[in-house]
Write a structure and sequence with these properties.
heterodimer, A: three-stranded antiparallel β-sheet, 3 strands, B: mainly alpha, 1 helix, elongated
């Protein structure tokens, strides 16, 4: 395919960064105003004392809210809406939760190992009632390690698009189209990293994150099916329809 | 597409 010009890369970076900021759910200014307020001990205990199914439902609702912003992000990415509808659905079904985990580092307080959740900053212990401590720990570890790269908003935007436009997803009908889009997005990501004078290893570190994201998402699916085996009615009647559609 | 009606609808909606 014809070489991508510098101007085209700049244009792609601009479009994807703008799409990211328009759909990022929490603006940086909002985050700063929140002054990283964490849950008080009695609030933590009230989450811990929730029945398992109630905490699962709350988390499913929060994940679904975040995913809807990711869908809007995807719709604004140059070229995504030109893909066939099947592939748009395949990419979002497989990648939306991965982008949610990437975006999580924007609302993560590394010093206190806490993530913005349900109004305040929550440590892993808030999620104890889920019965998924191993997965929660891995998700927090991932957020902390992504935070340590101190990505800028445009770097995060490009990395999110790169994760979403994965040409190796199964069930893609026009794999080549997605490959072209992903390659251009990767070039744009490299372009941004160079423009921001990032050291060389950052792109490779980001590539390694992709494998971790895949693992986190498959473990989420495993935990969900284990939960649903015990509480089939709760999932059917109380979980958000979009969540069930994506992960059911 | 049939199995993903909600996602399909979200994709059809104008970018809100």
């Amino acid at each position: 395919s014809p070489p991508v010009s510098m101007a085209e890369l700049d244009h792609l970076v601009q479009i994807i960064s703008k799409s990211h900021l328009e759909t990022c759910q929490y603006l940086r200014e909002e985050l700063q105003q929140m002054s990283w307020q964490s849950f008080l001990q009695d609030e933590v205990e009230s989450y811990q004392n929730k029945p398992r199914e109630a905490m699962w439902q709350l988390c499913a609702v929060k994940i679904t809210e975040a995913i809807q912003y990711v869908v809007e992000f995807a719709k604004r990415i140059d070229g995504f809406m030109d893909l066939c509808q099947n592939d748009q659905i395949v990419l979002l079904k497989a990648g939306s939760l991965e982008v949610v985990f990437v975006r999580m580092c924007r609302v993560f307080d590394s010093q206190n190992n806490a993530v913005y959740f349900d109004g305040k900053f929550a440590g892993p212990d808030v999620f104890r009632a889920l019965g998924c401590d191993d997965l929660i720990t891995s998700v927090f570890d991932f957020a902390k390690s992504l935070c340590s790269l101190h990505l800028t908003e445009d770097e995060l935007a490009l990395f999110s698009a790169f994760v979403l436009l994965s040409a190796d997803r199964s069930w893609l009908q026009e794999k080549l189209q997605v490959e072209k889009l992903q390659q251009k997005t990767q070039l744009a990501l490299q372009h941004v990293l160079q423009k921001n004078h990032r050291e060389d290893g950052v792109l490779n570190k980001l590539r390694c994150k992709v494998a971790v994201l895949r693992s986190l998402c498959s473990r989420h699916t495993e935990k969900l099916s284990a939960f649903r085996a015990v509480y089939p009615d709760i999932v059917r009647t109380h979980f958000p329809p979009l969540y069930k559609e994506l992960f059911g | 597409k049939e199995k993903h009606k909600i996602l399909h609808q979200l994709l059809q909606n104008s970018t809100s």
